[in-house]
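REVIEWER CHECKLIST
Item 1: Sequence provided? yes
Item 2: Single chain? yes
Item 3: Sequence as submitted:
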Amino acid sequence: MFRGSPGVKYRFAEPQYPPMPPRAAPSRRRKPAPPAPKAAPKVGFVSLGCPKALVDSERILTQLRAEGYETVPSYGAADVVVVNTCGFIDSAVEESLDAIGEALSENGKVIVTGCLGAKSGVIRERFPEVLSITGPQDYKGVMEAVHTAVPPQHDPFVDLLPPHRRRGAGPDDVGVKLTPKHYAYLKIAEGCNHKCSFCIIPSMRGKLASRPVDEVLVEAEKLVKAGVQELLVISQDTSAYGADLKYAARPWRGAEYETRMLDLCRGLGSLGAWVRLHYVYPYPHVDDIIGLMAEGRILPYLDVPFQHASPRVLKAMKRPAAAENTLRRIAAWRSICPDITLRSTFIVGFPGETEREFRTLLDWLDEAQLDRVGCFKYSPVEGASANLLADAVPEEVKEERLERFMERQAGISGARLQAKVGRTLEVLIDEVTPEGVIARSWADAPEIDGKVYIEGKLKPVPGQRVKVKVTDADTHDLYAELAR
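Item 4: Structure as written out by the authors:
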């Protein structure tokens, strides 16, 4: 199977199965040799897009494994290829179409799923020969298409076993993971109830559909037992978790937990792993979560998609919590947990954005002093209502504002990292290379934030937590040595 995402090269991985039990000693009576087993049908897998799509890929791959399919890391070895697409912005659509075209060219038998699958006409227009197209979360549709293209191998013994007993799985089996062994994405809900004018996610993934809290906590417990050291909580709107279920209470470990953000974090915080929250809107009830961060029960890290600071632009974007005084909320969070790391994303060049409104955003940045920030130029997305807004910002103005924005934030980020020089931090080892050790602190989510580069003689392994002393910093990363 191979995975990619916007800005990330394909990465090859193989599912890992437990070792086979030792074979029994042969009896003295010669028995006729059994017929050679048929080769398992082979599937190639390309996963594109965000962590939510990654979790979808892991679920499909787990089902493929349970049904006896083998995943392979090349087009040539596959009987069929599944491409899990992204369709959020134009560049992601083009990357997905390129991946489909490559798979067709290299293999010829291609099944398409994911967010771009919700726009099947776009795919069929360019690639009428694809075998099947399904939208996001349509696991059943993907499996039906795989069964049609490459029927599963019949095994009278395996077919009688329940799914958790197949292909080396155990009662605590967590399925196939596409992330390193020491961290995992934990998807707590699907869909979104908001109607942001620049976004088409609700039309692709539907309305908010939360998972019951006990189901999420049981999955998290299995992941931690399997060696996961960091749980990255994801959804389209983590702050809204449980609203559709009316915050129903469910039992877990002998206690009642409501299906809401606070109780979920309390449960996750009892497992001993790092817990990192993504896509949290700045509603007042989030203040209660900050208290858990101050107590050390979950990481003092919050990913909040602010998107802009101008009230008029936020209203045009139809952003939830647009009326909130976000600077006051940030100040309240820092008063509760001074070590909190705040990351966010922004859009510049939204239709109608004036120079004055853009300067309002820069002034907001100066006051907010966010630790980690990403920024995008506004790009029309087919089906988004923002396409109908007047006063489109010229491309050269978008580019110029993006550069000014990132330059302003680089100074803020660099200063905040310099303030950590001399501090002792706990870090999680991600990679050990011939050049050195690469780790992350509580302030660094994988793939989107900075890193901690550790010098000195040490023999850590990925997934190990160690204490380091920060010796230097630049705009994005920290440099450290093992603490004594």
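Item 5: Key structural point noted by reviewer: The chain is about 30% helix and 20% strand.
Item 6: Recommendation: ____
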